[in-house]
Amino acid sequence: xxxxxxxxxxxxxxxxxxxxxxxxxxxxxxxxxxxxxxxxxxxxxxxxxxxxxxxxxxxxxxxxxxxxxxxxxxxxxxxxxxxxxxxxxxxxxxxxxxxxxxxxxxxxxxxxxxxxxxxxxxxxxxxxxxxxxxxxxxxxxxxxxxxxxxxxxxxxxxxxxxxxxxxxxxxxxxxxxxxxxxxxxxxxxxxxxxxxxxxxxxxxxxxxxxxxxxxxxxxxxxxxxxxxxxxxxxxxxxxxxxxxxxx
Length: 247
Description:
Strand order of the largest sheet: 5-6-7-3-8-9
Number of domains: 2
Shape: globular
Number of helices: 9
Distance between the termini: 48 Å
Strand content: 15-25%
CATH superfamily of the largest domain: P-loop containing nucleotide triphosphate hydrolases
CATH architecture of the largest domain: 3-Layer(aba) Sandwich
Structural class: alpha/beta
Largest sheet: 6 strands, mixed
CATH class of the largest domain: Alpha Beta
Order of helices and strands: EEEHEEHHHEHEHEEHHH
CATH topology of the largest domain: Rossmann fold
Low-confidence stretches: none
Mean pLDDT: 89
């Protein structure tokens, strides 16, 4: 079996008449941790949606596990959306949210095998004590852990995350990366994560995809996040001094 998980060749994505993404070319191998960075509106979330098969490609070739994204077995992929998009008033328990990721629907009743798999996923992310709590009562960090369990409950080979640290405090963010790094090292999980945090990307990712509607760079963090490329993407280097150190 090939260890190639994602292959993009000159990928374009249009929304209406507007190019949301242009000329993306990259490969992702099994076990890689790819961080997708860029300013607001640069096509980061669009790229994730294209990998999920939600946003079709307008040009070029995009393959996930040697197939078009919409044809991939859902069991092979997990997805962690931005938690700010979730309605906290929805009357569900944490375990219900995890089972929703397993079955693709809200459970009318809990089957024993589903409950056991959901509890194991919550345990893996250190959130089994939250199983019976209502989603609306969770902190940002707690909700993010439950969403992460939801993304991992199928034991996917590829996990996609869209700004998972948004709305999470510093401790919660550190816990998130600890879980991701641990799961990747023990299970060989491949991760593609949208983030605004250059420093976290530099320290945790194996490769960086830097976008500004088109691809600015793809490669190891010390190459893709060079000061010249950050300036090209963002117009400044901002807090990049924390990555490279200061004089």
